[in-house]
Design a protein that fits this description.
The protein is of the alpha/beta class. Helix content is about 30%, strand content about 20%. Helix 1 runs parallel beside helix 12. It is globular, with a radius of gyration of 24 Å.
Length: about 500
């Protein structure tokens, strides 16, 4: 007789901010029958993997943390990666989360089994089942590798910023950096002094603002540790200050002219060469792409061993990168190291290719070009599943942790409702999902993210923004504060009830 696979009430995929936060709330509710499936050897998600030189958060420390676990000992106003990762591991340990984690367990597929009213998950270490599935893989989980002719023929060392090769010595190297996103502007200043020559291949110049980063003083840390509510005041002041950005991003993009003036000032005070200034000045409305922050990025690009190349890359060869200018002239740039700062699969998360409904159709195929969820969290046709950091829950102005916690609260409300009412199956009504996403699309009209004149990772191949939340985050928090059963098909497993009666 074949032994049944282990079964859990809840299975959580991923152990980043979403997975750990979900686990803490489950434990606080007294629901200990859950498991976290983590494909790596340690928890931490994005902040475990992105350990490149200079990695840090661009949201202030007091806000980029769980509301239930404020950290009074942050060292800086913008936390570096090692400190964030340590914080996550410490909080997980305090709530005894590691005992629920199965490390090195990569979920290869998750299938909904309607006859058993459960999810069947296949991993590289075997099978398990769960009544409820929570995906916390996140949008920054899987690096995006550019499709460039010949990239597989490169004979030097090549790696993505999220998979940094710390064994590769950059001293005296001819380094190509492809991409100018949030990661690149952090690691480029760190590696430039080591390079013989650093060539930065820039497709689009980002808006980069001065970063007001500083040490948090001993007095401040003492206040946060000893004066009740002091850190909450700091956190809330940062939160409401960040919420004000929405007036420019979503209500009246003309207000962003002030931001653009600050961005140009940041370029002008750091770069003397007019030609380089022109290359680094964006040609789109601030906020259309993610606004970045750095104090040393522009000064680094003005160094004599740095070249900024804006011609398009047409090919990678064994020891070079080839570009072509507007006149068709090709230039070969000799390099021995390529570092990809090319972002992640945000609008097409690979986890969606591994989650299947009862018809055997993947979530990715179900979505197609219309990536949608109800309240960013549940998807019609995928019962008992919750997607944290799902469609239209991303942000361009404040802490993603705030949105994740709002989704976790909604998920917990749903689980508690089902438990109180003796229900064990939920599936959002397609019409409710459609109405919700029509509202999101309507709210997105006129925002800088769709009308700012740029091509960003916020947009899918059809130019629709399926990534960001289009207005204030407090609005999303209100929408997810309570579970709304009228928007769901809720059922009890009658066959299970009959079996229980027979057994009795």
């Amino acid at each position: 007789m074949t032994e049944a696979p282990p079964h859990h009430r809840v299975a959580v995929i991923g152990s980043g901010f979403a997975g750990i936060g979900m686990a803490v709330r489950l434990k606080q509710a007294g629901l200990d029958d859950f498991v976290i499936l983590e494909r790596a050897h340690d928890l931490g998600g994005t902040w475990r993997d992105n350990d490149y030189p200079g990695a840090a958060c661009d949201v202030p420390s007091h806000l980029y943390s769980w509301s239930f676990a404020l950290n009074p000992t942050w060292s800086r106003t913008f936390s570096p990666q090692p400190e964030i990762w340590d914080y996550m591991k410490r909080v997980a340990g305090e709530y005894e989360i590691p005992g629920h984690v199965l490390y090195d367990h990569d979920v290869t597929s998750a299938h909904w089994e309607p006859e058993h009213n459960r999810w069947r998950l296949e991993t590289n270490h075997g099978t398990l089942t769960a009544q409820f599935l929570v995906t916390g893989a996140g949008p920054l989980a899987d690096p995006s590798i550019p499709d460039i002719k010949g990239i597989d023929t490169f004979e030097g060392t090549m790696f993505h910023s999220a998979q940094w090769d710390h064994e590769h010595d950059l001293e005296g190297r001819k380094i190509a950096v492809i991409g100018t996103g949030a990661s690149a502007i952090q690691f480029v200043p760190e590696i430039q002094p080591k390079a013989e020559r650093l060539t930065l291949f820039q497709r689009t110049a980002p808006w980069v603002m001065y970063r007001h980063d500083r040490d948090i003083t001993k007095l401040e840390r003492w206040l946060y540790q000893n004066i009740p509510g002091a850190q909450q005041v700091a956190r809330k002041s940062i939160y409401w200050g960040r919420e004000n950005y929405i007036f420019g991003f979503a209500k009246n993009p003309k207000l962003l002219k002030v931001v653009e003036a600050l961005g140009r000032s940041n370029i002008n005070r750091s770069v003397d060469d007019p030609a380089l200034r022109a290359k680094l000045t964006p040609n789109f409305r601030a906020g259309c792409k993610r606004i970045l922050m750095s104090n040393d990025y522009y000064p680094t690009l003005a160094q004599p061993n740095v070249d900024v190349v804006t011609d398009g890359i047409v090919e990678v060869r064994a020891n070079s990168v080839v570009t072509r200018d507007a006149d068709g002239t090709e230039t070969e740039h000799e390099v021995d190291t390529i570092i990809l700062g090319t972002g992640f699969h945000v609008s097409d998360p690979p986890i969606a290719q591994r989650v299947f409904n009862e018809d055997g159709r993947s979530l990715s195929d179900h979505w197609g070009t219309e990536v949608q969820a109800f309240r960013g969290t549940t998807v019609a046709g995928f019962p008992n599943a919750f997607v944290l950091a799902g469609p239209n829950t991303g942000l361009g102005h404040t802490s993603q942790v705030f949105m994740i916690e709002a989704q976790i609260r909604y998920t917990m409300q749903a689980l508690k409702y089902l438990c109180r009412n003796g229900l064990d199956r939920m599936d959002v009504h397609p019409e409710a999902q459609r109405r919700y996403n029509d509202m999101v699309a309507k709210s997105m009209e006129g925002t800088v993210w769709v009308s700012g004149g740029c091509d960003s990772w916020y947009l899918n191949d059809q130019g629709r923004n399926t990534t960001l939340w289009p207005t204030f985050t407090w609005n999303f928090a209100l929408r997810t504060r309570w579970f709304d059963p009228h928007n769901y098909d809720l059922r009890v497993d009658r066959s299970r009830t009959r079996r229980a009666r027979v057994a009795a």
